[in-house]
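Need the bound structure for nicotinamide-adenine-dinucleotide, inputs here:
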Amino acid sequence: MLAEKIKDKSVRVGIIGIGYVGLPLARSFAEAGVATTGFDLSRGKVESLNKGVSYIPDVPTGIVSELVLRKKTLKATTEFDGLREMDVVFICVPTPFDKHKAPDLECVRSAAESAARTLHKDQLIVLQSTTYPGTTEEVVQPILEKTGLKAGRDFYLAFSPERIDPGNKKFDAHNTPKVVGGIDKTSTKLTAELFRLFIDADKVQEVSCPKTAEMCKILENTFRAVNIALVNEMLMLSERMGIDIWEVIEAASTKPFGFMPFYPGPGVGGHCIAVDPFYLSWKAREYDFFTRFIELAADTNMNMPYYVIDRLRRLLGSAGRNLRGARVLVLGAAFKKDIDDCRNSVALYLIKLLEDAGAEVIYNDPFVPKFKFEHELYMKENSREYHSQELTAELLSGADCVLAAVAHSVYDFDFILKNSRLVFDLVNAARGHKAANLHKL
Ligand SMILES: NC(=O)c1ccc[n+]([C@@H]2O[C@H](COP(=O)([O-])OP(=O)(O)OC[C@H]3O[C@@H](n4cnc5c(N)ncnc54)[C@H](O)[C@@H]3O)[C@@H](O)[C@H]2O)c1
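Answer from helper R.:
Posting the output first, comments after.
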């Protein structure tokens, strides 16, 4: 019985997709003493993991090598037949959108097909990829049931959203509450008990069905997208009115109830907040429903890079320079501070817009030594490879403008401001500094 196996930790857990979400999950189970296997198409990731070497900054190599080489509770493979030996299979594969911002569930479908090929009685399948409400029951369940086995009767099925926040030093897989919604009570219970192997019992929230759990994740991220858009609108108005929005937010944050600070910026990047609301607005149309808040937030947030370019043009203009032909040093290429992930990065989008405007662009990012414009989102074909430049006094002084696009903690703004002609800070990275050459978004 699966319940018994979970209780005595003899349960075997398989994880399809061992990236930013799957690897930390695999680590948590393996640390709890559960035999855990990662299944991935990427030979590079599988080989690295089996050598005990991590490729995700939040999961230290010391821990991976301990689990893989010494405790032997963690391993990885590209051979999906091994899923047959698993009691539980998690699906943690990407859920991007296409260039029209419509959901691309190709990876989920193909992972579900892999799980279906080896599905057996009493197995539990848990989808963790972020997606629109209905995916578990409308997309994954039919693929699994093509085998003739029936969900709820022969196997268990649940959705549990992932809340991991790469780079967050305070909240990780162990202390971030989990939400679980199964297609029936048993599926919910089994999934919840599984998470309780490494999370406090009261931190696992059971909900009535997969749709509720799916909507929960989208609500969380839409809440962020909408509030960021609101504060971005406030920023643009404040600039016109000669008010420092950063000072306003700091003051408003002293209110101990009913206010939560959100900060303006050059746009929303990454593969969660920038993507998930679109999954919901796409699905909503099936119900003749138009998610106006989502569209409005997207309108404002997606306009921010263009607003930044306009402000930069004006800033350079007042220094007697044109954006066309100017040398711009962009600080940061990742989609947020202290991580190496460039997916849907606004910094990259800014680099593209700057080049389109005729500027000469160089960048520095200690986490991203090189990148290429690969995603069709950037509408840039045959991209060359860009390389991070060493952040020297010469590099800074040689730029007409330094654009602080990502607030990596390692950036030393005493040094940057001392050696730069003009710094345009988009993310309050130079917080606490005052200098004539510093301009805030
Ligand atoms: N990264 C985050 O911070 C975060 C946070 C919350 C939720 N999510 C969601 O979690 C999901 C996974 O995101 P991620 O950041 O871990 O992605 P990732 O790209 O880091 O990892 C996904 C892995 O899945 C593998 N993969 C793709 N298709 C596969 C298939 N058919 N079979 C086996 N392996 C396959 C890829 O090779 C890759 O290693 C997405 O839905 C994402 O929106 C991500």
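Comments: The pocket of nicotinamide-adenine-dinucleotide is lined by residues 16-22, 39-42, 45, 92-95, 107, 110-111, 114, 129-130, 162, 164, 166, 271-272 (CB under 6 Å). The radius of gyration is 23 Å.
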